[in-house]
Design a protein that fits this description.
By secondary structure, the chain is α/β, with parallel strands linked by helices. The protein has a single domain, classed as Rossmann fold (3-Layer(aba) Sandwich), CATH 3.40.50. Helices cover about 20% and strands about 40% of the residues. It contains three helices and ten strands; from the N terminus they run ββαβαβββαββββ. The strands form two sheets. A six-stranded mixed beta sheet has the order 5-4-3-6-7-8, sandwiched between helices. The longest helix has 18 residues. The radius of gyration is 16 Å and the shape is globular. The structure holds guanosine-5'-monophosphate (5GP) and magnesium ion (MG). Magnesium ion (MG) binds next to strand 6.
């Protein structure tokens, strides 16, 4: 399906809202089972993971706390070398079982940076749940909803320069002159 937004960007639906919800229900069941009897803190990586995090947490059937971390790495469609930390968790993570919730793992650089920050708080365990991962990424992920190839994805929280986050589905963006990779 091709959708035209503002007459500029052509979007192709990659995973529909229904497909995402169905997959997240399975993932949530697995996570709920794994974290029974644990001291879980689910950590949302803002902004991209916000809808994935919300949907997942609402489906988790175990006791937990939530908190947020904000870090930015991308400028346009290119990964920037400069990672900026804007917000760190307020919950005391010492001795807790932390589940990081991320939108997409590409090179793994962002996650490695976040791990360095979190390990200073001495949690008991740290695992990672991600909505998307690139097939060629060698980064080890505990819970992954979907595996994708090299395409740039927007929607369901993922953006291009702050836009498209509110699309209720995941879509690939077909670059036009306005979104060229240069
Ligand atoms: P990494 O540090 O693993 O290379 O990149 C991960 C971060 O880059 C993600 O948190 C996300 O913000 C951004 N990113 C990577 N690929 C995409 C993509 O296809 N679409 C969007 N919107 N962001 C991406
Ligand atoms: Mg992100």
């Amino acid at each position: 399906m091709n959708i035209q937004i503002s007459g500029k960007q052509a979007l192709s639906v990659l995973y529909s809202e229904k497909e995402i919800k169905k997959r997240l229900a399975v993932l949530a069941q697995q996570i709920s089972f794994d974290y029974k009897e644990k001291d879980l803190v689910v950590l949302c990586i803002l902004n991209g993971a916000m809808f994935f995090f919300t949907e997942l947490v609402l489906k988790l059937n175990c006791s937990l706390k939530v908190d947020f971390i904000k870090i930015s790495s991308y400028e346009g469609m290119k990964s920037s070398q400069n990672l900026k930390v804007h917000l760190t968790p307020q919950v005391n993570l010492r001795g807790k079982d932390v589940l990081i919730v991320e939108d997409i793992v590409d090179t793994g650089r962002t996650i490695k940076e976040i791990l360095l920050i979190l390990e200073k708080s001495r949690p008991k365990s740290i695992k990672l749940a991600t909505l998307l991962k690139r097939q060629d990424s060698s980064y080890d992920i505990d819970y992954c909803a979907f595996s994708i190839q090299g395409e740039f994805v927007v929607g369901y929280g993922l953006d291009l320069d702050g836009n498209y986050r509110n699309l209720p589905y995941l879509a690939t963006l077909n670059p036009s002159k306005e979104t060229s990779l240069t």
